[in-house]
Design goal:
Strand order of the largest sheet: 4-3-5-6-7-8-9-14-13-12-10-11
Largest sheet: 12 strands, mixed
Low-confidence stretches: 461-476
Distance between the termini: 36 Å
CATH topology of one domain: GMP Synthetase, Chain A, domain 3
Number of strands: 22
Helix content: 25-40%
Structural class: alpha/beta
Number of helices: 13
CATH superfamily of one domain: ANL, C-terminal domain
Radius of gyration: 22 Å
CATH class of one domain: Alpha Beta
């Protein structure tokens, strides 16, 4: 047996041991989670008929609505006002009787949206969102199990398995070195993380060296950053590896992106779509014909003026998290624009509904002092790491001379030290660009579209058109 064959045999053996020994011990023993039980269930339900899936969805929906209407102050008040009885729900179509849950409502009624029985027990996160207005939210530990199981199944369609060598070309949300717990977790899973927001030559060379030494089984990445990296690899003839499947997250995969990623890594490019509020919403299967929705966990609607749309029409993405009883998010408008795919069953055999594409959220690419790309999404990522409302709204503007102005509306939890910590990290990514901060009482929306733009790059310094961007699901 040659060295390459021996290495592959060892990799397979480790993957088997990890799946049957380390992973169950970690999930069930250490963390006390039933993620693997849910994953086993999802591996079966993905092959259910459309009628069976609809039945599962309706049952989960009625249970959620009944619980929320009885226990959660906001929904108890809303259902009473509308005379809405969850017991009368017969299908997803009945959800149209309820109003949409906007970010503004979540901010204003936060305390009333949290189930009293889960208060203090939920997991808490935040997101900056497309408008640059950070949002806090919570979800139950039951929901966390479903989210992790959904991610494992969706990423699994691309070949991802915990224990397989995975190169995460990802945004480094937290400053400083990872904790000992994180290092052990990543070592056991054989995951290596590299900061994809750093696109200078030295950083790309380090990433290339890591990729060559690691020879990963799969890559998980921020789409635009990895496309830039792939373009550099191809243009300089640096590829010396066999095909590696790539899972793209955070931003839409445009045809040009898919082409350049294919040249650098092979034809197996998989698009995924998620948000911090719900994690994985949809993922591409081996047929590459749209993204299957995570229907057993999320009820996803595409709506216009609150009314559901069918395939072929673009509208607002509205999500109902079927298992988040800690802070129910029912008909939550996540800020994205998408289009449903045809109702025709996918050639893979799964009856799960599909998204044809996701159009919304745009983050422009800035340039640092040396002309290296600085993905605008870095601003969203760093602000979304804050658990408190340090900033209520922000906007980053790069002028024609390269200078960056960060406009900020202070949040109710604003603190100078916490704010300096975040902006200090912006300076690291901007690498020498003139960078100033302005405080405002409010930031006006775009005069024509009426929408708030978080990243503005004046045309004189732009090297590419704006690309659709989405909030990334956390990989962990």
């Amino acid at each position: 047996m040659d060295l390459t064959s021996l290495r592959r045999a060892c990799d397979l053996a480790y993957g088997t041991v990890f799946k049957h020994v380390f992973l169950p011990a970690w999930e069930r023993g250490v963390r006390g989670r039933e993620t693997l039980s849910y994953l086993d269930r999802l591996e079966q339900t993905q092959w259910f008929s459309r009628e069976e899936l609809d039945e599962l969805e309706t049952q989960a929906l009625v249970e959620l609505l009944s619980y929320a209407g009885s226990n959660v102050p906001y929904y108890r008040e809303l259902f009473r006002k509308l005379r809405f009885d969850p017991r009368g729900v017969r299908s997803r179509a009945d959800l149209a009787e309820l109003p949409l849950l906007t970010r503004e409502i979540v901010r204003e009624r936060y305390a009333d949206l949290v189930d009293p029985a889960h208060r203090g027990k939920n997991l808490k996160k935040g997101t900056s969102g497309s408008t640059g207005k950070p949002l806090k939210f919570e979800y139950s530990r039951l929901s966390e199990c479903w989210r992790q199981a959904m991610k494992a199944r969706g990423y699994g369609w691309a070949g991802y398995r915990a224990g397989r060598k995975t190169f995460f070309y990802w945004a480094a949300v937290s400053a400083g070195a990872p904790t000992l717990k994180m290092r052990v977790d990543r070592a056991l899973k054989r995951e290596i993380f590299f900061d994809s927001m750093k696109q200078d030559l030295a950083s790309r060379q380090l990433a290339l060296g890591t990729l060559r030494r690691m020879r990963p089984d799969i890559i998980v990445c921020y789409t635009q950053a990895c496309a830039q990296f792939a373009r550099w690899i191809s243009e300089n003839g640096l590829r010396d590896w066999d095909d590696i499947p790539v899972i793209c997250a955070a931003e839409a995969v445009l045809p040009a992106d898919r082409a350049v990623l294919t040249r650098a890594f092979g034809s197996e490019i998989f698009e995924s779509y998620g948000s911090r509020e719900t994690m994985l919403i949809a993922a591409e299967c081996e047929q590459h014909a749209g993204m299957h929705l995570s229907e057993e966990n999320l009820l996803v609607e595409v709506v216009r003026n609150g009314q559901p749309l069918g395939p072929g029409d673009s509208g607002d993405v509205v999500v109902t998290d079927l298992h988040n009883y800690g802070m129910p998010m029912i008909r939550y408008v996540n800020g994205d624009i998408a289009m449903l795919a045809s109702d025709e069953r996918c050639a893979c055999g799964r009856a799960l509904r599909r998204l044809d594409r996701v159009d919304g959220r745009r983050a422009d690419t800035m340039l640092d002092a040396a002309g290296n790309a600085v993905p605008g999404i870095v601003f969203h990522v760093l602000f979304s790491d804050a658990r408190r409302e340090i900033v209520r709204q922000f906007q980053a503007v790069q002028s024609a001379n390269g200078q960056v102005v960060l406009k900020v509306v202070r949040g109710r939890d604003f603190a100078e030290d916490a704010f300096r910590h975040v902006t200090g990290r912006f300076s690291e990514y901007l690498r020498g660009l003139p960078f100033t901060i302005e405080f405002h009482e409010t930031i006006a929306p775009h005069q024509h579209s009426g929408k708030h733009q978080t990243i503005i790059v004046e045309r004189a310094v732009r090297t590419q058109s704006a690309n659709p961007a989405r909030t990334a699901t956390t990989p962990g």
